[in-house]
């Protein structure tokens, strides 16, 4: 009998992969389920972006293998984008690496920097992929607490009271998913100093900077940050291109070269047309974000009303693509709450526990839902 690898014992199928199958079965059986759980933008990319990928298909090089580093003009567009919005200087030749989505980057970074037994600091709550990839590369996850009382920022003083000698990598993610918490430059400076004192690499996962947020900020704006930090970014959320799988990794020449060594053995370059479309997206004016956020702001107002109806509390200053809401009462169970809502009202939202133990007592609404469906959800809750 052929057996599976031991590493499969360290991970489970992604929550949304399983849950969406369940939701799909409910819909197939005739139940009118409204999915407010997953952060997959339902809006279209810019017409310019779509036209660009269409027009590129007839280019003579469109259907060939592409460079592992991406088109030079794509890297230059990323560099220009970072300069315009984050005031971060990047050499497009060697400090920028296009990716097929940020999730690919998480794996490549982990393979490039982690050995079996190395420890990795992972936010709790946080993106589940940090944990699963850490396990897959046989490193050791170490969760650090994020709490509402500290506005979801790590207590670095408390962390340094523990033994960090085996820690090689720390994942951070601001604006934060799932809570929507943001940080300022001083807090990024604290993180960089923490990394330097403890000889570890910080990777900031930064796909939500432009969603309901006017204070665009990169960890690489901190002086000297490239020595100990890298940053992931993505076109999925900000440009409605999640299905295109376009991301980027930026950092020092040395660290980018290390990740490239892994990536060049894992794929054969990003499709030419996707890169051309991505270039068009990165060159859009700031009006694109303003128009996008008008839509999301209206949706958020309605979701706040749903949260009010459910007697939940939330932070009106949060950023990003979600509303993170605290359930009422003492010791509420998030998974029971969302299951009851799904079965009784045919509304699916995400339980906070899928993002870590500190998500217990919280639920997460996605803004990737048409306004009419949010209004319908409000009506169902009133019944």
In short:
The chain is α/β, with parallel strands linked by helices and 383 residues long. Helices cover 38% and strands 14% of the residues.
Key structural traits:
single chain; 383 residues; alpha/beta; Aspartate Aminotransferase, domain 1; Aspartate Aminotransferase, domain 2; 4-stranded antiparallel sheet; 38% helix
Explained architecture:
The protein has 383 residues and is an alpha/beta fold. It has two domains: 6-44 and 287-382, Aspartate Aminotransferase, domain 1, CATH 3.90.1150.10; 47-282, Type I PLP-dependent aspartate aminotransferase-like (Major domain) (Aspartate Aminotransferase, domain 2, 3-Layer(aba) Sandwich). The protein contains twelve helices and 13 strands. The strands form three sheets. A seven-stranded mixed sheet has the order 2-8-7-6-5-3-4, with helices on both faces. α5 (128-136) links the parallel β3 (119-124) and β4. α3 runs parallel beside α9 (272-282), α4 packs across α8 (253-263) and α10 runs parallel beside α12. 46% of the residues are buried.
Strand and helix map with partners:
Blueprint: H1 15-28, E1 34-35, H2 47-56, H3 72-86, E2 96-99, H4 102-113, E3 119-124, H5 128-136, E4 140-145, H6 156-159, E5 167-172, H7 185-198, E6 201-205, E7 229-234, E8 247-250, H8 253-263, H9 272-282, H10 287-309, E9 313-314, E10 322-326, H11 334-345, E11 347-348, E12 350-351, E13 362-366, H12 371-382
Helix pairs in contact: 2-9, 3-9, 4-5, 4-8, 10-12
């Amino acid at each position: 009998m052929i057996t599976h690898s031991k590493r499969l014992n360290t991970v489970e199928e992604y929550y949304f992969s399983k849950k969406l199958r369940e939701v799909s079965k409910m819909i197939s059986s005739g139940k009118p389920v409204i999915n407010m759980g997953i952060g997959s933008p339902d809006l279209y990319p810019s017409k310019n972006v779509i036209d660009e990928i269409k027009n590129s298909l007839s280019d003579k090089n469109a259907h060939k293998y592409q460079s592992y580093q991406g088109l030079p003009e794509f890297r230059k567009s990323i560099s220009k984008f970072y300069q315009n919005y984050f005031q971060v200087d990047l050499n497009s030749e060697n400090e920028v690496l296009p990716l097929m989505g940020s999730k690919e980057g998480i794996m490549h970074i982990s393979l490039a920097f982690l050995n079996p037994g190395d420890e990795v600091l992972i936010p709790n709550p946080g993106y589940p992929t940090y944990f699963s990839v850490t396990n897959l590369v046989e490193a050791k996850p170490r969760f650090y607490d994020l709490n509402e009382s500290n506005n979801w920022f790590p207590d670095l003083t408390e962390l340094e009271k523990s033994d960090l000698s085996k820690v090689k990598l720390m994942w951070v993610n601001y604006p934060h998913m799932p809570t929507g918490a943001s940080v300022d430059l001083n807090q990024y400076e604290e993180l960089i100093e923490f990394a330097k004192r403890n000889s570890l690499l910080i990777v900031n996962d930064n796909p939500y900077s432009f969603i309901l947020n006017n204070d665009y900020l990169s960890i690489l704006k901190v002086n000297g940050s490239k020595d100990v930090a890298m940053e992931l970014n993505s076109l999925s959320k900000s440009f409605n291109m999640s299905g295109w799988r376009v991301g980027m990794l930026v950092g020092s020449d040395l660290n980018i070269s290390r990740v490239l060594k892994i990536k060049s053995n894992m794929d054969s370059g990003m499709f030419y047309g996707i890169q051309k479309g991505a270039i068009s997206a990165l060159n859009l004016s700031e009006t694109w974000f303003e128009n996008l956020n008008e839509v999301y702001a209206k949706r958020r107002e309605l979701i706040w009303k749903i949260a009010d109806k459910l007697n939940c509390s939330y932070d009106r200053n949060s950023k990003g693509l979600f509303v993170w809401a605290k359930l009422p009462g003492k010791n509420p169970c998030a998974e029971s709450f969302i299951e009851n809502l799904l079965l009784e009202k045919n509304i699916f939202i995400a339980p906070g526990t899928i993002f870590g133990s500190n998500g217990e007592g919280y639920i997460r609404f996605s803004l990737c839902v048409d306004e009419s469906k949010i209004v319908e959800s409000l009506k169902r809750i009133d019944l």
